[in-house]
Write a structure and sequence with these properties.
338 residues; mainly alpha; 0% strand
């Protein structure tokens, strides 16, 4: 295999692996243990991202970010808070829904973002995009109809997450040009600003007394070890996505990067079907395939629109992944600036 092929293939595989790992580990941490500590998990991810970014910068890797300062922090803090809401509601939805169904319904966020951007930025919605939106809605209806483990709380949090995700993306795109963030600036500021928030909310909202009482029992030592490993891997995966996403974008193209984001949803759903004991139905598989097709159609429509737009014009966002959405949105902004 030639070196040029390796230079392209390695970052693509690294991005896919980190995205799959992040989603599956999040599901494991939030549904497989006695306590579902969403804020604690998010705090661990924020801390892992910041700590490993600083370490990568110190050892000479291509990780550069703007130093924290009062002016940018004040401007960016509302964006960071909207990201926190998006991640929390996504975590709660993932706690109650199986991963394939979560994948299907996450596509609805694209529709919310698209029409939000049409309203805020006057972005166009093409006929091919409408076809993809129809497939997204159809896949969601098929998925809900075949959900034999229906959980009302899961659908509530999923709906809330779609709204929170769209709000975050649109808000960030309005603010990002004010602060002129580049490369890892967005990731660094988002995680460093929300880390104290996650810690405080975890202490106030989550059942730490019960946690220590339960895991203080030696009979639960093995479960505690598994929980700790899950949290640790989750923190590393958060940084891995932050690093691999721009790496993939730099070594391929924005078109290839967007297509990878769409294609990556299928292996995530397939791995989840094999790893978790949730029932698998023919209708559920059909819903995943329809959602997968919708993502491909939308990505193709977006790339056609991007080629037709003058340089620097506003276009609609890429398919939204199931991991840390802020990195996808920031990378798309970076691509459109090139």
């Amino acid at each position: 295999m030639s070196s040029s092929v390796l230079q392209t293939a390695v970052p693509i595989l690294a991005y896919c692996a980190s995205s799959i790992t992040m989603t599956l580990v999040n599901k494991l941490v939030l549904s497989s243990f006695q306590f579902h500590m969403v804020f604690f998990m998010l705090a661990a991810q924020a801390f892992g991202s910041v700590a490993l970014m600083v370490l990568a910068n110190r050892v000479g890797l291509n990780v550069k970010y703007r130093a924290m300062n009062k002016a940018d922090a004040k401007t960016w803090f509302p964006v960071a808070c909207s990201q926190a809401l998006m991640l929390y509601t996504g975590g709660k939805a993932l706690e109650y829904l199986n991963v394939p169904l979560f994948t299907v319904f996450k596509n609805l966020t694209i529709i919310a973002v698209a029409y939000g951007e049409k309203w805020v930025f006057k972005a166009a919605v093409t006929s091919l995009m409408l076809v993809s939106f129809g497939l997204m809605v159809l896949s969601s209806l098929v998925g809900a109809w075949n959900d034999i483990t229906f959980n009302g709380w899961g659908y509530f949090w999923m709906s809330f997450n779609c709204f929170a995700s769209a709000t975050f993306v649109i808000h960030m795109r309005k603010v990002i040009k004010q602060v002129n963030f580049q490369d890892f600036d967005t990731v660094y500021f988002n995680n460093l600003l929300t880390l104290p928030l996650y810690v405080v909310l975890s202490v106030v909202q989550e059942n730490w007394k019960g946690f220590f009482e339960y895991y203080g029992d030696k009979a639960n030592a093995d479960e505690l070890s598994s929980f700790a490993r899950g949290i640790f891997i989750s923190g590393i995966a958060a940084f891995a996505i932050s690093y691999c996403s721009p790496w993939c974008l730099r070594t391929t193209s924005s078109t290839t990067y967007s297509m990878i984001g769409a294609l990556n949803k299928l292996p995530i759903a397939l791995f989840a079907m094999m790893w978790f004991p949730d029932p698998v139905t023919a209708g559920g598989v059909l819903a995943v395939l329809l959602g997968f097709a919708a993502g491909l159609v939308y990505t193709h429509a977006k790339n056609i629109q991007k080629r037709a737009q003058p340089s620097g014009a506003q276009v609609l966002p890429p398919p939204i992944s199931m991991d840390r959405l802020d990195q996808n949105a920031r990378s798309e902004q970076q691509a459109s600036d090139k």
